[in-house]
Specification:
Layout lengths: L1 E8 L8 E13 L7 E2 L5 H8 L6 E4 L10 H17 L5 E2 L2 H15 L3 H8 L2 E5 L2 E5 L6 E7 L6 H5 L8 H20 L5 H4 L6 H5 L3 H12 L4 E4 L6 E5 L4 H12 L3 E6 L7 E2 L5
Antiparallel strand pairs: 1-2, 1-12, 2-4, 2-6, 3-4, 5-12, 6-7, 8-10, 8-11, 9-10
Helix pairs in contact: 1-2, 2-3, 2-4, 3-4, 9-10
Length: 283
């Protein structure tokens, strides 16, 4: 069996560059599916990645990650499929992937996804920076709670969402985002939570995407007002993610529920620091 964390990409200014692994997991394996799991048909993203990586047979999947909500569902299940194929070919593979195996899975699944930020976070865990074929872990010098507001009854297509983005972008906006990405990485590494709010500002993609999902825009504004250190549109949305001090979680979650009511719900998560893991009964 393999366990793969969900992810939140971009983190505001890091469009297609930054990813964060979340403590919400897809699991997959071979043989008869356990309770709560189902066999992935040949058209499922997990089954396609499994076959691309050389896997044979039927793949089962259990994935409580919401689909189409910006929490890396397709990336996580593709990583699960590709990793199961590696484990099928190597009976000694157990625990974390080797650097070579990680690079292979990120490359294959990133090509299937069309971008590498989500899959890199799911493979490596923690916060990652993706630059071409290179993936670098960012140290996180504190233990935030990641609170995610998930709209009910609303999904986003990444391809459709990208069609709203402006290309090329003004140099001033590019420079703005470069400064925020650098500040965000430094703030995460040093635990400078006071810098996180400004560091997650963005001029490249969030405004255009949030214009299409007004509830998500209100949730992002409200979470910051209620005391979250920072917040961002998770991936292409429509979910919104926040980093909070544990003491601020209840006020933020309760405030979001009071204002937005039944239009969405919150999930309290952690940063997954382990990434993809292979589990076998004998190891």
């Amino acid at each position: 069996m393999v366990r793969v964390p969900a992810s939140s990409a971009n983190l505001g200014p890091g469009l297609d560059v930054l990813g964060l692994a979340l403590g919400l997991y897809a699991t997959a394996g071979l043989g008869a599916p356990p309770p709560g799991a189902r066999v992935a048909d040949a058209r499922h993203p997990a089954a396609i990645a499994f076959a691309e990586a050389g896997g044979r047979g039927e793949l089962w999947l259990r994935a409580p990650i919401p689909m189409g909500r910006g929490l890396g569902y397709s990336g996580a299940v593709r990583v699960a499929g590709a990793t199961i194929a590696l484990a099928q070919a190597d009976s000694e593979l157990c625990g974390p992937l080797s650097p070579e195996q990680s690079a292979r899975v990120v490359d294959l699944t990133g090509r299937l996804e069309g971008h590498h930020d989500n899959v890199a976070a799911s493979v490596h865990g923690g916060v990652v920076v993706v630059a071409g074929a290179r993936v670098q872990r960012v140290p996180v010098g504190f233990e935030p709670v990641v609170l995610v507001w998930v709209p009910d009854g609303s999904t986003t297509s990444t391809d459709r969402s990208r069609s709203a983005l402006v290309d090329p972008v003004p140099r001033s906006d590019a420079v703005f985002n470069l400064g925020r990405v650098a500040t965000l990485i430094a703030a995460l590494a040093t635990g400078d939570v006071d810098a996180l709010g400004d560091a997650t500002d963005d001029r490249l993609h969030q405004s255009a995407r949030l214009a299409r999902v007004p509830d998500s825009r209100r949730a992002l504004e409200l979470g910051r007002e209620l005391g979250a250190w920072c917040g961002w549109l998770s991936g292409s949305g429509p979910s919104v993610a926040f980093m909070c001090d544990p003491s601020a979680v209840s006020p933020v979650a309760d405030g979001l529920e009071a204002v937005l009511g039944e239009r969405g719900h919150t999930k309290l998560l952690t940063i997954d620091r382990d990434g993809t893991r292979v589990h076998r009964p004998d190891c």
